[in-house]
Write a structure and sequence with these properties.
By secondary structure, this protein is mainly alpha-helical. The protein contains 14 helices and 4 strands.
Length: about 325
Amino acid sequence: MLFQVYGDNAVWQWIGWILVFCCLIGANELARRTKTGGIIAFLVVPAILTVYFVTIYVAAAAGADWALNNPTYVHMTSWFHYAKLYAATAGCIGFMALKYRWGKIGKSDWFKCFPFVIVAINILIAVVSDFESAFRAWGTTWVSTEGVTLMGGWHNVFNGVAGIINIACMTGWFGIYVSKKKDDMLWPDMTWVFIVAYDLWNFCYTYNCLPTHSWYCGLALLLAPTVANFFWNKGGWIQNRANTLAIWCMFAQVFPMFQDYSVFSTQSVNNPNVNLTVSLIALVANVLALGYILVRAKKQGVNPWIQEVFKGTKDYEQAIARAA
């Protein structure tokens, strides 16, 4: 098994997973369908949380007990969590600018490459984290600032390389559209080929570097936007992904006890052989995805990053049919 989902808390762990999955889908729908929902979710709430985070760290530096014992201060101290939260939120704001054509930026053609840039940054943040474990504890373990035991080795290297390849699997950087209902930013060329490769890579990242959180952020969080894309929001996967990631990061940063010390807490098996297997699967999937993209691009005689390569496929055509 990948996770320690057995024993007295097994029922609670499954209930927790279902709750996270369903709530993320619901929160994404509220945030994407109206301008007001998006502004509240990705401008108002993050602004309030920023004041909260700064207040905690200033008070902790001054020696205030309430801050030193605050769950966010004690359990969510890694640079990665803050980097991911604000990078994902920046993505959501940029996507809304494109979707609602805010200002000169939202109306400009050059800004259509923003989704590629922000997704690449988010991937690189995780790649650096994977390589950090390999550097800190090659063939052994190290304890993060949050007290989590992490292993370092080839699994980090393989998955770090898979992440870099995954960036190259994003095609049609300027092929960004707005849906007819103006409720979605669409990237039709981001088909199942990229989505599956990304999900496998990102799951492996969480499994390697967030073993106490992967049950939720490696499965429920990844499946929520993927399910939405495949069933009712075709072409909107990257928007779904950014929205659910930002919302989850906000929740996890303020309420770490849900994952870390409650009946819902779920550990991975933290076995180096399992980590290595998962990393190899992610690497092979991304190599195959990039290979397929390059072959398809060569047949069409197009640049796969500047031009769209999946025209004519079912996924692409269903997505582009939704565009205004």
